[in-house]
Predict the 3D structure of the following.
Amino acid sequence: MEFFDTVKSRHSTRGFLDKAVEIEKIMKILDAANSAPSARNLQEYEMYLLDGKEQTAILKGIAAQEFVSKAPAAIVFCAHTKNSSEKMTLSDIFPVLDAAIAASYVQLAAAAQGLGSVWVASFDPGKLLKAIGAPAGLVPIVIMPIGYPAAKPEPTPRRSLDDMVHKVQKKS
């Protein structure tokens, strides 16, 4: 699929067919995430793959949305944050941003292969880390369920570029 077609065709998917995602497609998705840029190229995030409904079922009661535990696959993105206080500096949030960028690459890679996904950030962090076997010190950022869409969602309304793009004027 051409890049801009992929971007336009990607929609949040919350319903999946009862069909496993081929490991070749999952590997392409993970490789795309690994190609994402990161601050200072430190790649301070981890990805946890849940491949198959038996594995995603462990997310039941952890993610606020029940469909997550029924997805054929999911990837959990966690960041290596150094400071979780309210006084975080910009460099403290780089790992969170890096994980978010990688998750965005995953969404586009999934869409390019005819798969659906959705960003899920409503979950119990402690229970999630325990369920995926992540070590202490990681902060879960997003769960990305992935699978073949059960339906094609209608496009959501978008703000116009005129409304959201502000041209910076030269100062005299």
